[in-house]
Design brief:
Belongs to the beta-eliminating lyase family. With about 450 residues, the chain is an alpha/beta fold. It contains 16 helices and 14 strands. It folds into 2 domains: about 5-55 and about 315-460, Aspartate Aminotransferase, domain 1 (Alpha-Beta Complex); about 60-310, Type I PLP-dependent aspartate aminotransferase-like (Major domain) (Aspartate Aminotransferase, domain 2), CATH 3.40.640. It has helices spanning about 25-35, 60-65, 80-90, 100-115, 125-135, 165-175, 195-210, 220-230, 240-250, 275-290, 300-310, 315-335, 355, 365-380, 385-390, 420-435, and strands at about 50, 95-100, 120, 140, 180-185, 215, 255, 270, 350, 380, 385, 405-410, 440-445, 455-460. Helix 12 packs parallel to helix 16. The termini are far apart.
């Protein structure tokens, strides 16, 4: 590869969308009206929106062209079969059902596998995954390696499963009380951290020993494969697609929010390796919840765009450019003294709010306070991954304390330039200089589940 090709994005920009920064006094007003919850802000209130990488990426010319091929037949759509071929190509799995997004996949699959009182064990559950486990009478147990909680430690695979602890939990609970093991790639709640293939193989051996299914929560499967290629010597000369296929070979089923590594605005899927009985259960459940099995909540044009997205996401030039931009933001923040999760993950930079705001206790949500302050400072919308998101204990109703209090700066795919990253970094560095002035928040009203989306907060006096 020519050295110059690594210095520029592997694409040209054909269309732009205007954004603007509203005055600071207006930002103060808008965030207060939103109950100090960034999810309550309107899009026009935002200058740089790095709330999520889910469905916020820019599609390619080939994807836009694919939209015109969309077959909107209710049953047996040609678009479905094109997407099925694409999914089978990357996963090696026999069976596939589309869903409108990842949480739709969980809502269809989990009730078929979880019995009341069973545990789901994961490296780390994401918020909707944890919610769907609990809604079906289960308990979500996180089992990531201890190194994940030390943001200053530079470990290549902080998303790894703690397999010694995993086996201890299985022996203590009894294999019959474990619904399944979820491997989240990359491990979002730990900072977008990858899971090594060596670790996945070890987890698979334990799962087979006790007859437990492995499900991949695979929203960022290609980014995880890129880190494997760069950090595991054994796979240095493998293609991204070869690594992806090997990773999935150690699972029994997949849930995916394709709004991430599918590089589309809407889409998800369930893929099942070979369990026909489970597949038939999925096909039955998907009809009343998502839609007919050959569209599952998606239009034909969405399925065609996703089929193309799955071919583009495994291109090394794309992944290299994408991850380099995330690393660039991390580098700027580190040079400015801002504490972040090291090494930088695949889709986001995670600011360590515990270190940034040590004077704010977990029950006053330091990462949420930092999220609000970033919007006030520069019109930038990030998201809290900490005690506010973690919520209350389902048994006692008391606030849980998260091991990590993180502000996630999530970079949409092929959307922003490095100049935007510099604005974000400058804003956080400015806030860091006056961090002692920042106050925490308390909840005024909240729903029972997934409260961080709609809860209202107020500043602590």
């Amino acid at each position: 590869m020519c050295e110059y090709s690594t210095l520029a994005e592997p694409y040209k920009i054909k269309m732009v969308e205007k954004i603007s920064l509203i005055p600071k006094e207006e930002r103060e007003k808008r965030i207060a009206e939103a109950g100090y919850n960034q999810f309550g802000l309107k899009a026009e209130d935002i200058f740089i929106d790095i709330l999520t990488d889910s469905g916020t990426g820019a599609m390619s010319d080939h994807q836009w062209s694919a939209l015109m091929l969309g077959d909107e037949s209710y049953a047996g759509s040609r678009s479905f079969y094109r997407l099925e071929k694409s999914v089978q190509n990357i996963t090696g799995y026999k069976y596939f059902v589309p869903t409108h997004q990842g949480r739709g996949a969980e809502n269809v699959l989990f009730p078929l596998l979880i019995k009341e009182g069973q545990d789901s064990i994961s490296n780390m559950h994401f918020d909707t995954t944890k919610a769907h486990v609990e809604l079906n009478g289960g308990r979500a147990v996180d089992c990531v390696i201890p190194e994940a909680y030390d943001t200053g430690l530079n470990h290549p695979f902080k998303g790894n499963m703690d397999n010694d602890r995993l086996e201890k939990i299985i022996l203590e609970k009894g294999a019959e009380n474990i619904a399944f093991i979820i491997i989240t790639i990359t491990c979002n709640s730990a900072g977008g951290q990858p899971v090594s293939l060596k670790n996945i193989k070890e987890t698979k051996k334990i799962a087979d020993r006790y007859g437990i299914k492995i499900i991949f929560d695979s929203a960022r499967f290609a980014e995880n494969a890129y880190f494997i290629q760069k950090r595991e010597e054994e796979y240095r000369h493998c293609s991204i697609l070869e690594i992806v296929r090997e990773v999935f070979s150690y699972g029994d089923a997949i849930t995916m929010s394709a709004k991430k590594d599918g590089i589309v605005n809407m889409g998800g899927l369930i893929a099942i390796k070979e369990d026909l009985e489970l597949f038939n259960g999925v096909r039955t459940r998907v009809v009343p919840i998502e839609g007919f099995p050959t569209y599952g909540g998606l239009s034909g044009r969405d399925m065609d765009a996703l089929a193309v997205g799955f071919t583009e996401v495994v291109e090394e030039s794309y992944l290299s450019s994408r991850i380099r931009q995330v690393e660039y933001l991390g580098k700027l923040l580190s040079e400015g003294g801002v504490p972040i999760q090291n090494p930088v993950g695949g889709h986001a930079v995670f600011v360590d709010a515990k270190k940034f705001l040590p004077h704010i206790p977990y029950y006053n949500f330091p990462a949420q306070a930092l999220c609000v302050e970033l919007y006030r400072e520069a019109g930038v919308r990030g998201v809290e991954i900490g005690s506010f998101l973690l919520g209350n204990d389902p048994d006692t109703g008391k606030q849980l304390e998260s091991a990590l209090e993180l502000l996630r700066l999530t970079i949409p795919r092929r959307v922003y330039t490095d100049n935007h990253m510099e604005v974000v970094a400058k804003a956080l560095i400015n806030i860091y200089k006056r961090r002692d002035e920042i106050k925490g928040y308390e909840i005024e009203e909240e729903p029972e589940i997934l409260r961080h989306f709609t809860a209202k907060l107020k500043p602590v006096e």
